[in-house]
Every structure is written in C-alpha cells, then in structure tokens.
C-alpha cells in the first residue's frame, strides 16, 4: 500500500521530491527496508511528534513548499495534488509542470487543503486528503505549536480558528488565528461521507476490490473511482459501517514534542 501511495503521488507534475517520512522506532525498520529495496527516498524522525518529523524531512531536502499525504490513502489523485499546489502558487503554477518547488516569492496562500476536520465540513471523499503549506508556515508551526494534536497531526496549528468565506470558484479562503492565509478546495458535490482510506480490514477489502476492477492499470483517477462506486453499490457497502478517526485521537506522547 505504501508503494501505491508513493507511485500515485509521484505522478503529480509539480512536486520535485516525494519522500516517505517514517520514524526512528525499530518497529518502522521494515518501512525503511522496503523503501531501500524499492528505491524510494526515506527520512526518519520522531515517532510521536510527527510535526517535528515533517520539519526535519523538509529541512533535509530544502523544500520551499511542503505537501502532506498520509500513507493510508492508496487512491490518492496526482492531478488533485497539482490543483492544490496551483491554488497556492497561482493559476500559472498549476499549468507549469517544470515549476521548481520554490515557486514565486510571494505565494497566494500559506496553507491549502482539500478538507479541514470537524467542525468544518468536507466535500471530497475521505482518502483524498491533501495539505500543502509553505516552508515558512511549517517552521512557524514547528517553533510555536504546543497542543498535542498540533504535534501529532502536523498542520492543525496552521488553520486553527480560520473563518472561511467565499473565494473564487470552489475555493474558500480565510485567515487563521495565527495570521496565516488559508484556502480550502471544495468538490462540485458533497462526497464527504465516502470513505476511500485504509484504517480497517473492511477499508482494505474495498480498496483491493477497486484496484481489481481496474486490472493492470494504476493510472485511474479519483473520478474513475467515483464512477465505479456509483455503478457498484455492493462495493460501497463493504466499509459503510466504519467510523472515521477524529483530530482528537492523539497519543499523549505527542505532547512531549517541540523544537530541538
């Protein structure tokens, strides 16, 4: 599954580096071994302070724009990743595949995502979660965030307290409590109840069935998945009873994090 996430993310046109950011715990040695065998770049950091882990990986690569994709989303859509980065960098950035990670000196936003957690409403399926931020915003969060969920879930500090208003097209914008410029993409219709991530055996079975339906091709889009599921309600029923995790689900050891 990690390989699927990596390959699908890697097909996005704009990002120049895709890196697996895992922990230094011995339990994650198998991830590092797999990445080495598969030729996938890998960085290791804190197990519980995931914000610190992301900050270290971004610092190692000199990234000016940081994209967060979680490894339990094997239906990630590369074109949607490019769309999010394009919103951050401006329309020209979305059309230019050779754009460097640095982008323009003054991006339009500090943080762009396809969803925010409750109480905000999501419209993209669970499993198409994309978060994009500037290096400066990530470093501010790493330096200042002290709430455990901010350390474990990486980016809540950035959008905390934002009041979203109307933006252009399907983009809502606002300013967070920490003065950061936020943009959230919305789908043309409300698909937020659909579950395409993998946390349970039922989730895994659904994703296996989806991949099986497309045969040897791995280049299907999220819209292809949507069309498949609309034609196959039996597939949707596989994980319909799964309860999604919330932002409040954190490990207490994340509270021990902070700048080092």
Structure notes:
This protein is of the alpha/beta class. 36% of the residues lie in helices and 12% in strands. The protein is built from 11 helices and 8 strands. It has helices spanning 2-10, 29-38, 50-61, 78-89, 91-95, 135-144, 148-152, 156-159, 201-213, 222-231, 233-236; strands at residues 20-23, 42-45, 65-68, 111-113, 131-134, 165-166, 171-175, 181-185. It has a 6-stranded mixed beta sheet. Strand 1 (20-23), helix 2 (29-38) and strand 2 (42-45) form a beta-alpha-beta unit. Helix 3 runs antiparallel to helix 6. The longest helix is centred in the C-terminal third of the chain and has 13 residues, at 201-213. It is globular and about 45 Å long. It starts with a helix and ends in a 24-residue tail after the last helix. 37% of the residues are buried.
